[in-house]
Design brief:
The complex is a heterotetramer, with two copies of chain A (about 575 residues) and two copies of chain B (about 290 residues). Chain A has about 575 residues and is an alpha/beta fold. Chain A has three domains: about 5-185, Pyruvate-ferredoxin Oxidoreductase, domain 3; about 200-380, Rossmann fold, CATH 3.40.50; about 465-584, Rossmann fold, CATH 3.40.50. Chain A is built from 19 helices and 21 strands. The N and C termini of chain B lie far apart (about 60 Å). The chains are: A alpha/beta (about 575), B alpha/beta (about 290). The structure holds thiamine diphosphate (2 copies), iron/sulfur cluster (2 copies) and magnesium ion (2 copies).
Chain lengths: ~575, ~290, ~575, ~290
């Protein structure tokens, strides 16, 4: 019985590969398994190889494994591109239609199954994916009833007949496969799950849901991979809450519109990826200078420029902190799981209002688009904090048109915030340096006071758990450090290394800026080597640690920037090589 | 009763003496008073330029943003609080050079705000470079041999972009300008108002006198029908854009806000941020 | 006899203050004095206080002093705003017209001179500035003939009469003043200069001239303070060389147009300040990814957002290095004198072509607009290097439409560059990751090879003198580090400190990125304390040093971000306070 | 003699089968051949989108830039080398959303390049969101209730922006389209060509059949005078923009390059970069 199943389906884009993976996963999800999926796709609409790799476990999983147990192939390319991931224990299920050929050095046996033919006989070859799912079920020895709920849900509105046909396709896939399998039927059965109901979602869903729960009522955005799903979720849901989404003419309009809405008192945000973020730098500066809350999601993808728009990367880190001209306070948050994506998004909106500044939610393609099991969000943990938002009745009537001190230099560094429409609080807002009432001022003393106030706000940040820490050792051989979606692979590695008696601590940075210097200082101090693992070429997080914490001598930067995510075995090897190279 | 004095603050504008922008400011103040807006219910969102300073000179909420982006900020604000009166304003460089995309898309979108361009056919604040509104042949610091690009035609652009309110004023004629801005504020969609606002320092061609000589007033055109788009286009082309008054208005076109599916009839800013547990659970269900 | 004169003229903007300073300086320049001027002005056209402070010395000077010897005031505000800079040895010359009042605690005597009246009597009150210059000449005991050349040059085209009137104004100013001065006539005489002819120019002139000398034939730009003079210079000069300037609709167009021109083989650039740079981030990334040369000048000013557009600041440093999403190789150069501005601009264009990447010339308002004496540029030092630009006849005829390997992975990391129009070198260029011929490619190995090639190019940079070093001590008490226009104030401080027996080395970073790690490492190692002086709030250069070199313990960050430049005495005090505070 | 085959390379387009962009590509290839350009003398500069991939599918120099910026890159290139034939191309989102400002200013500027918009009234590459060209009511991923903004009118915008060449084609009619692009290349200023290029995957409304039904061909309009701007405007308004052919051309208008003071008659790229010592010294003299 497997403790983990690694399943992949592949074929041409636009051929239904996505829905094959989707239906298979949904069924497993409902059985209470934990899932983690990663899609390989290209920046084109139809054609080109795509695949969906899904890891299924009875316990928590947050990474895709290196190897495959089952490969479902709808074309030869799928075999050719993916067979290296197969071991002696794996199996290929290939559609008879394309007369599949297993490469000579393919370690796994191949079963040729007439997916398309069976489907066509049942009425439409479109159902070949259901046949493939049925065949997979035979390997796993799954009762076809497991799929009934999912099929009902997906095809229900098309009528009972369609539902039945699809169930038949699954059934026949199962049977055809069972015949071929003989003894091996159910050989890939997974250890039973707890049967609990959990959510299954992509990171973008978690972020969008978080925004809605945080009280967002307006979004302005421009489509881009891999951020668009956030806008699409809001377009679906905001009308239910009276809110609206404007698809703008560009990202500059999106960011400045979101500023306008926040200025008006409505939580608003935008989401984009690298190219869009590069265009928003001036707007981010405006938010910082005018102390208007602003939340922006950056779903990192392969850069630079248009780069690898459908590939994993974590290379916008430095830009998120330093991309704007001049100096503003700014918060950068990098959740690493679906749960964090949700709760951190809520934190982002709270901090943006409390500190009156731009907050960037950094994600990466793997987190944004990878579909994973997520514990149902806890309503009672949804807290909304709006900071020093002053109501009209708290404000004394202004004398002789004097302006409200919207930018007052206060003891705690946070100025009182009022919304336009407030009777007694008229004031001016400008991106030019200004005095406490918002009037432009070039006076040196005022300038210094306002700069100190703005930059000092970061000291008052109220962010829960800025670093995810799993540090069992007081004196560690290695401290692993990462951010965003490398969380799972590092968790996995920590366990493996600990099992081979290497003392490993793990810190995953959730609050990137302001950098959690103290926590990291002590963790770095406790480690002989600090291995910083990141999906970029220049070791950006490693550099940030050098700048903020030091420890140049013990820092080892492990990078990957070929567009693919880290895999546990591969990474373990990479790290071990560094170890024996005397670097560690 | 509010009067235009209620819209005066105690900041002395730093415009050059004689700058056309003074009168634009006055006209906005008068128009707001005439419409009966309370100062705190008005927000003026401006761009960067000499003109952009206007939001700091009116006793109302004011937001002086970044170059060319007054319109998206203004629309975001209006979407947040539909009870506010939102006026966006800025220079011809602001709106027709760096901000051109936003101008056209804002016109199309028809969010209910008023946009007042202070058109001096020059870059004032940066000391006299050519603007998209500079006439061909106009000599500036950046075109010492004279501008060689035909100037942008704001009224034509607005009309072809589906504008529901298109007008033009002249800062010398405060009365007409006030009436135009008033109508703009009262218009329920996006009102586009271009105002000739002479730069006395860097534009020695398009002066007050020049405009007095060249401008046609629509009020003097007998039987002019401002609800007719073709007629509007015709008069703009015939006068080569040198015409003032309300050129076109479609009073029946629904504003953007009226058309957005599900958009709340009350200002978003008044909503309770926290959703109910029931709503929350329904959202969770989507992923189970 | 003075070894240095500190002279300032002040009044309302638009009143001719600039030309007063200009004429005075030009005359001093022709006498062979070294000059360094700094203008105080506001972001408005007419009105508002402005002043021009000029330091005159028989020897090199690159900073304005704290104090004033002579203050020429055209209005009361000028006295009120500037009198604190006066000492017992200074003097105020005030126009009688505004009935000047000296503040009680003003240390310097005030002479009331009828500038306007005298001018009016001569025909036009506009000439009051000439009268003031004449009065200054009396203090300095300058022969009025000194002004003849300058007046001829400026007013010559208006006819002989105007020239004479102006000379008369100077003469009468001299005489009126002489009468009042009595014994003190010539008390402010400066030690004689060497009489050599040198250039007197603002940094922007030096940059623009450098660009022209580097072979620039196209510029695309959008006006902004304090960069516009660069465009204006090019508009004046490029037509003489057949080239052109396009004033674009925005900075995005400016940067991308410059890329287009460079792609076409013509050296082109753009110049802007913070807000414009923020808008160019995507274009810069495109240049990096497509390996098209691109030179951009960033004249830093007070940020963030619109900030303090007419004030000194050095706060774009981090953005220049890290502003783009994804990872590209990029060079950031920060000249600190007029001479360096010229030669480094030429270096910038050479490097942009040699390494096929974006090069940013970082300036700051003080360098860009401050007018200074500059040694005449040396034609023989103008070297033009275009890197691996391959001509048609060097290329074998392409077979069967195969593409030219424009992005070939070569040994030295630089790919051969060809220009469109070359017969045998058709290829594709894209901001998407691509193979050696420019065809889009998502393959992991190609990706890595191309990334490594691009980022590796920085190792081949050919930049002369990346750090200006004046390090007389093997073991120093203090190492001063700065960049851009703080050069002069640090030179001054180094001398003063050395005179009080503190061992001071000075390093001024000229090549900001790639950071000159080795040089700086050894300089830091040799110093007890490293004092990093910069015009920003967060200590950006200090952070860069921490990241690249370490030395967290000995680093002391001295910042100033109130919009005004560092002054020698003030800075000395600030540093000494840190010393006694036990920080040093 | 070059033929269109010389403009074919060995890259297989990744467009969906049936996509309109195939024919636009073919028309550009044919037009270039007809004009007699050598492949290495042509540079195609494209934006980002499905359409933007076109520069990689033509055997010529090609530059696939960033979203919305094909036009400034193309102009920079042409200024550098006036002997090159420069074609800019991209999608409707590329040119009319994010790139709107550049489109209008490029038209005004009249640099001698040819701009081909592949207008499918949708965002293809990002999987089916509304574009500024989507018709009101058109349902997309981002406007499930239907678009509520009036669509951009490219031809009207071009005409009001001082265009010297305005045309529209349909990707099904390769013959007409080829002739249009050919004329565009031969036109000595900026040629603006909008092409209906159906997206078979995401636009199920504006299909090949739909266009065949709705389009008017100018060649069928008797006595149509493409040198008359008013007439051009009229026909565009009457057909609601659903017209193909050369709508307007001013053959006499000088191009930008012809008007820039001092601009060299030979390509800048051929110049010697280094100035003479004499020139150098003259520049130094300015500061002495
Ligand atoms: C992004 C950016 N680019 C450039 C500038 C510099 N700038 C300030 S105002 C302005 C144009 C002024 O012209 P206009 O908009 O017509 O306003 P006016 O001063 O004439 O009223 C420019 C280019 C800026 N502030 N921001
Ligand atoms: C700055 C930036 N924003 C967004 C994107 C994502 N994006 C790529 S293509 C595209 C629009 C595609 O529509 P269109 O221009 O009409 O081209 P089509 O695919 O329809 O041919 C968008 C939004 C991007 N690449 N860059
Ligand atoms: S420069 Fe021109 S636009 Fe600016 S304030 Fe002066 S007159 Fe007005
Ligand atoms: S999605 Fe549409 S525009 Fe894109 S390639 Fe497919 S058919 Fe063409
Ligand atoms: Mg203007
Ligand atoms: Mg499109």
């Amino acid at each position: 019985m497997l403790q983990q199943l690694s399943w992949k389906v592949g074929g041409q884009q636009g051929e239904g590969i996505e829905s094959t993976g989707e239906i298979f996963s949904m069924a497993m999800n409902r059985l209470g398994y934990y899932l983690y999926g990663y899609r390989h796709f290209s920046s084109r609409i139809k054609g080109g190889h795509t695949n969906n790799k899904i890891c299924v476990r009875p316990t928590q999983v947050r990474t895709i494994p290196d190897d495959l147990d089952i490969l479902v192939a709808f074309d030869q390319e799928t075999i050719d591109v993916n067979y290296k991931e197969l071991t002696e224990k794996s199996v290929v299920l290939a559609d008879a239609k394309f007369s599949p050929v297993a490469p000579e050095d393919c370690k796994a046996p191949m079963y040729i199954v007439p997916f398309t033919e069976v489907a066509a006989e049942l009425g439409t070859s479109l159902m070949k994916n259901m046949v493939a799912i049925g065949a997979s079920a035979a390997l796993l020895n799954l009762d076809k009833a497991v799929f009934q709920g999912v099929v009902d849900e997906i095809f229900g509105k098309k009528g009972q007949e369609v539902v039945e046909k699809n169930m038949q396709a699954i059934q026949q896939g199962f049977e055809t496969m069972a015949e071929q399998l003989g003894d091996r039927l159910g050989e890939w059965e997974i250890a039973p799950a707890d049967g609990k109901h959990r959510m299954f979602m992509i990171g973008n869903d978690a972020i969008a849901f978080g925004a809605l729960a945080a009280g967002v009522r307006f979004m302005a955005a421009y489509p881009i991979t891999p951020a668009s799903e956030i806008m699409e979720y809001m377009i679906k849901k905001l009308p239910l809450f009276g809110g609206a989404v404007i698809q703008t003419e560009d990202e500059i309009a999106a960011a400045t519109m979101a500023i306008g809405s926040n200025y008006g008192g409505v939580r608003a945000f935008t989401a984009s990826a690298g190219p869009g973020l590069s265009l928003m730098m001036e707007a981010i500066g405006l938010s910082g200078m005018t102390e208007q809350p602003l939340v922006i999601v950056d779903t990192q993808r392969g850069g630079p420029s248009t780069g690898l728009p459908t590939k994993q990367e974590q290379s916008d880190l430095m830009q998120m902190i330093y991309g704007t001209h001049g100096e503003i306070p700014k918060v950068v948050i990098a959740p690493s799981t679906g749960e964090e994506a949700f709760y951190d998004t809520i934190q982002a909106f709270n901090i943006a209002e409390e500190l009156q500044l731009p907050v960037i939610i950094l994600s990466d393609l793997q987190l944004s688009l990878g579909k994973q099991t997520v514990e149902p969000f806890d309503y009672s943990k949804v807290e909304i904090r709006r900071g020093k938002l002053v109501e009209n009745d708290e404000i004394p009537v202004a004398e002789d048109k004097s302006y409200f001190k919207r930018f007052e230099v206060t003891e705690d560094g946070i100025s009182p915030r009022v919304l336009p429409g407030t009777e007694h609080a008229i004031h001016h807002v400008t991106g030019v340096e200004h005095d406490e009432t918002g009037k432009p001022s070039e006076a040196a003393t005022n300038r210094k006071a306002q700069m100190d106030k703005r930059l000092g706000k970061l000291q008052h940040i109220n962010f829960k758990e800025p670093v995810y820490v799993n540090a069992p050792y007081e004196e560690a051989d290695i401290l692993f450090v990462g951010f965003n979606s490398t969380r799972g692979v590092l968790e996995e590695l920590q366990q493996t290394f600990i099992e081979s008696d290497i003392k490993v601590n793990h810190a995953h940075i959730r609050l990137i800026h302001p950098f959690p210097v103290e926590v990291m200082h002590s963790l770095v101090a406790k480690a002989k080597k600090v291995v910083v693992v990141e999906n970029n070429a220049t070791g950006q997080l490693a550099n940030i640690i050098k700048m903020n914490v030091g420890g140049h001598d013990k820092l080892v930067s492990v990078t990957k920037y070929d567009g693919t995510p880290f895999l546990p075995l591969q990474l373990a090897k990479q790290v071990k090589e560094l170890l024996t190279d005397g670097n560690i | 009763m509010v009067t235009f004095k209620d819209f005066r603050n105690n900041v002395k504008p730093n415009w050059c003496p004689g700058c056309g922008d003074f009168s634009v400011q006055a006209a906005i103040q008068r128009a707001a008073a005439n419409v009966g807006i309370q100062p705190h219910d008005l927000a003026v969102i401006s761009g960067i330029g000499c003109s952009g300073r206007i939001s700091g000179y009116i006793h109302s909420y004011g937001f002086h943003g970044i170059h060319g982006r007054a319109l998206p900020i203004a629309q975001g604000l209006k979407m947040a609080n539909k009870d506010l009166h939102v006026i966006a304003s800025g220079g011809d460089g602001d709106g027709f050079a760096i901000g051109m995309g936003h101008t056209i898309h804002s016109i199309r979108r028809n969010v209910d705000i008023t946009y007042v361009v202070m058109d001096n056919q020059i870059y004032g604040l940066t000391k006299g470079q050519t603007s998209p509104r500079s006439a061909e042949g106009f000599k500036t610091k950046s075109t010492p041999g004279g501008a060689i690009e035909p100037s942008v035609q704001p009224l034509e652009l607005a009309l072809t972009s589906g504008a529901t309110f298109v007008a033009q004023g002249f800062s010398s004629d405060i009365k007409e300008l006030t009436a135009i801005i008033e109508a703009g504020i009262n218009h329920k969609g996006f009102s586009f108002i271009n105002v000739f606002s002479p730069c006395v320092t860097y534009n020695k061609v398009n002066t007050y006198d020049w405009f007095k000589e060249h401008l046609t007033k629509l009020s003097a055109v007998e039987g002019y029908d401002s609800t007719n788009r073709e007629e509007a286009m015709k008069v703009v082309m015939e006068t080569e854009g040198l015409v003032t008054g309300i050129i076109y208005q479609d009073e029946n076109a629904p504003s953007y806000q009226e058309q957005v599916p599900g958009y709340a009839p009350t200002p978003l800013v008044d909503q309770n941020l926290k959703m109910s547990e029931q709503e929350f659970n329904a959202l969770i269900q989507d992923f189970m």
